[in-house]
Amino acid sequence: QVQLVESGGGLVQPGGSLRLSCAASGFTFSWYGMSWYRQAPGKERELVAAFTGVGGTTSYADSVKGRFTISRDNAKNTVYLQMNSLKPEDTAVYYCKAVGLFGLARSYWGQGTQVTVSS
User: Fold this and answer.
1) For residue 95, is pLDDT > 70?
2) What are the residues whose beta carbons fall under 8 Å from the beta carbon of 97, sequence distance 6 or more?
3) pLDDT at position 38
4) How far, in Å, CA of 25 to CA of 90, rounded?
5) Is 65 exposed, middle or buried (0-12, 13-18, 19+ CB in 10 A)?
6) Which long-range contacts (CB under 8 A, 24 or more apart) does 42-48 make?
7) Rounded CA separation 11/117 (Å)
8) E-strand spans in 55-109?
9) In this predicted structure, what is the pLDDT of residue 2?
10) What are phi and psi of 43, to 5 degrees?
């Protein structure tokens, strides 16, 4: 019933752009904070971008600051990650995560989408 489905990944050359989407269903989207993580082979999963509060505050990993932008469209139950000026080190599987707000102790993960930055 609960689903987070990522899309928009693929192969892109260095300096290019991609926009990832995460479509949510099966829960009340506006009750959850949203974030993006990524994991490269042999590396730990790391937080890339997140909404940190109900007021729309966002935060970013230093490695992507100024290049990536997280946004959400509550009417479409979708969170986005706009990725510009991509670098080879951005290559990873990107995951969407939903975390309950207002004391709601619940979280969900998407299945991930592959992003490969290569010449």
Assistant:
1) yes
2) 4, 34, 35, 36, 37, 107, 108, 109, 110
3) 98
4) 28
5) exposed
6) 43/92, 45/95, 48/81, 48/94
7) 6
8) 58-60, 68-73, 78-83, 92-100, 107-109
9) 92
10) -115, 160
Residue 76 DSSP SS3: helix
Rounded mean pLDDT, 100-115? 94
Q: What angle (nearest 5°) sits at the alpha carbon of residue 45, between those of residues 41 and 49? A: 125
Measured in residues, the chain has a length of 119
Q: Which residues pair with 70 in a beta bridge?
A: 81
Task: Give pLDDT, residue 53.
Answer: 67
Q: In this structure, what token pair is assigned to residue 72? A: 């959400």
Nearest alpha-carbon partner for 81 in 58, 55, 54, 101? 58
Fill in the amino acid letter for 67: R
DSSP H stretches of helix in the chain = none
User: Mean pLDDT lowest for which of 14-23, 53-62, 68-77?
Assistant: 53-62
φ and ψ at 85, to 5 degrees?
50, 50
Please determine, for residue 69, whether its predicted confidence score (pLDDT) is greater than 70. yes
Query: How confident is the model over 75-97, as a mean pLDDT?
Result: 97
